[in-house]
# Entry
Amino acid sequence: MVKIKRSNLRTSLAYVEINAKATRSAPLVGQTTDNGFLDLWQTGGYMRVWDRVEVEEGDEPLVFAVPCSNLKQIVDSFSSKQISLKAVERKLHLSSGKSRVRIPFYTAAEDSVVPPPEVEKTMTVGGDFVSALTEGAAFLAKTDEKPTLSCYSIHQRNGSLRIVASNDAFNLYSRDIPYSGDDFDPILLPRECGQTISKAFNKSKELSIGLTSNDLVVVTEIDGTRVLATAQFTGMYPDAGELIDSEVSALFSAPKSSLLDMCKLSSHMTDSGLLSFEGVGDEIRVRFPKTQSIDGDLYLEGSKVLREFPRIYFNVGFVSNCLNVVDDDEISFSAVKGRYAGGAFTFTGSGQPRTYCYKVSYTDTV
# Structure
């Protein structure tokens, strides 16, 4: 029998269950180690996760394979500070105070925890890597018609690690972050893996990202216990580098709150899902295609016009995506120069990330 602090086991199972929800039929394998830990391994799907919990007391080896969701629910329902676990006749026996619960083992379960795969290349990133995955999620394609666009593109560029997320209709997110370590080939990280990393490592200060000989991506929490391994998506990602590295011409700046207010107002002004900006004199005029009875003259409060420009229409949802991830009170709106001139525009703050919207072709009827 081993005894474990309940709060530690709950935290570990909450992490492991992230993958269990995606794989459902795969078992959670647990095994005690010689140095006083209980190792947990959730198998199945294209993601595998590992964690370990300190054993407070233990006098015999323990190995089990049970449904993760069942074990987590039982541990959640217990109220004692310590839980006892024991394997008897292919059942995991749990004790908390006077309560006793027995969970049958999986019939065809692994008989031990398989360790995380060894990596050949590694690089170290900070918590801003996880932040980039979290911020970029809204920009990923929602369907699998173009499966590469439902993935994050992660590649090294100009001494930084660049994370890009983009959908079919050209709403793009880009963030460059510092890293140290080996050179990598570009990585295509599936949406579900990015979301799991965002949830599981959102409090991690440093992560090691490794690549195995067969190109599995292994994410390890430095000075922590969590490990995640995932397969990459195989395919070619569109080259967004020329767009992201293009020079821009600033058109106006405005308070983020004013821009978001206009996005929220759109649902009351139009059914089209569009809004436009127009630089007129020293004012930014906002217009919605007239599809409802409500009408009005709207201007962007607190804006500073840097250059007059004609009316440009955008998808309101895409504009909101851009604004929501820029962590600044003041937003700069600029036109991209070069190859994408006249089509691509960017919303940025004082630094990273950079977000892009492509204009919508729309002809006013009134």
